[in-house]
Amino acid sequence: MRLWCIFLLPLLCQLAGVRSEDYSDVTVIVRGSETIASTSGEFVCATIDWWPPEKCNYDQCPWGRASVLNLDLTNPLLAKAIQAFSPLRIRVGGSLQDQVLYGTPNLGLPCDPFTKVSSGLFEFSQGCITLERWDDINDLFLNTGAVVTFGLNALQGRHQIRKGVWGGPWNSSNAREFIEYTASKNYPIDSWEFGNELSGSGVGASVAAEQYGKDLVVLQTIVNELYGDSSKPLVVAPGGFYDQKWFAQLLEASGPNVLNAVTHHIYNLGAGEPFLDIMLALLLEKILFLCLCIQGGTQLCLTSILVR
C-alpha cells in the first residue's frame, strides 16, 4: 500500500500545483428539444447458444448443459435470472445456427442433435431442434417475459464454392414451416435474425452481399404472409462483423422496407484466448484501496474495484 503512495504522490503534487488562471471559462449549450438516438428498455441481452458439450477450445470443454438443446429449462434459478433483468432480450443463436434444422413435419430427415465431424463447418454436423423442445423453450420465455430474437439458418440450400465462401439462393422451406408453426402458437418472437457472422469475409463461412440481400427480401415476404396484419416480428441481419462495403451492398440489394434493423458483432475483449482469461482473472482478484495525500492536508481515499 505504501508503494502506491510513493508512486502517486509526485503526480498528485504536480497536479495540485496547476494554477487556476491557466483555465478559462466556457459555455456549453445543450439543445434538448430533439432526440438524436435512444436506447430501448431491453438493452441488456444474453445469448443462448447451440454449442454441444463436445465443443472444446484451448483444452477446455466448458459448454456442458448450456445450449438450446440441453439447457435445464426447469431450473428456478434460470427463470429468476431472466426476470431479474426484465426486460431481458434473449438471442437464440450463435456459430452453429447456420447448421440448425427445424423438426417440422416436412423436414424429411431425422431430427438428430449435433455430432462431432471433422469435415463439418466448425467441425460439427448439422443439428436439429424438435418442435417439442421449441415449445418448452417458449414456455420459459412466456413465463419470464423475455424479449426473443431468434437466429435463423441462412446457409440452408446453399453450396460451398470454395473454402469459406458459399453461394446459391437460400432454401427457405424449412424456416418458413418453422416460422409458420411459431406464429400459429402465438409465441412472442420480437425479431427473426438472418444468419450468424456470414458478412464480409465471414467466420467459417461467408455469403455475397447481393445474394444475402435477395434472401432477406424472401424472409420479409414470409414474415408478412404468415403474420398478416398482426404484430409482426422485425427482420434483422446480418449478425456479423462490420464490413462497410459488404453492408452497403446488402442494403442496396435488399432495398427499402425489408431490413428493419442492422445487427453486427463486436468482441471488445477478443475471442477468449487463455492469456486474456488469466489476466482478467488476476484483475478480478485485485481490489485496490489507494489513499492519496492532497496538498493542504486533506486526505482523499479512492477505492478502485477492478472487475471483469
Automatic annotation (TrEMBL):
It holds the Pfam family Glyco_hydro_79n. One of its GO terms (molecular function) is hydrolase activity, acting on glycosyl bonds. GO terms for cellular component: membrane. InterPro entries: GH, Glyco_hydro_79. Belongs to the glycosyl hydrolase 79 family. This is Heparanase-like protein 1.
